[in-house]
Specification:
Structural class: mainly alpha
Number of strands: 3
Distance between the termini: 34 Å
Strand content: 5-15%
Number of domains: 1
Oligomer: single chain
Strand order of the largest sheet: 1-2-3
Order of helices and strands: HEHEHE
Helix content: 40-55%
């Protein structure tokens, strides 16, 4: 029932974060695998790129996670030769602040 809402949110966001990986490791957890599987199907249909939004200061870990995402997308049948995975903040406008009445 909410698939279209979820897909629209994913298309606006296109983000994978630290919560989608095992702590301090470049391995995707189940949540990350499910998210990337859905993102891969949306990218096949509509295009786009996946953003890794992380606060990790460990550049080696960040690069390993970027490679993990690219490998997952490649295994899903996407051409990762293009800039399909980038380190960036979440996309979309986010929530607007409410105005006092």
């Amino acid at each position: 029932m909410y698939v279209y809402m979820t897909d629209n949110a994913l298309l606006a966001d296109m983000t994978v974060t630290d919560v989608h990986f095992l702590p301090h490791r470049p391995l995707l957890n189940e949540l990350g695998r499910e998210r990337l599987a859905r993102l891969a199907s949306l990218i096949q249909a509509y295009g786009g790129q996946v953003r890794l939004d992380t606060d990790s200061p460990d550049e080696a870990l960040v690069n390993a996670r970027l490679n993990t995402i690219a490998d997952f997308l490649r295994d899903a049948g996407l051409d990762t030769g293009q800039a399909l995975v980038v380190r960036d903040q979440a996309g979309g406008r986010g929530m607007r602040p409410s105005r006092p009445s």
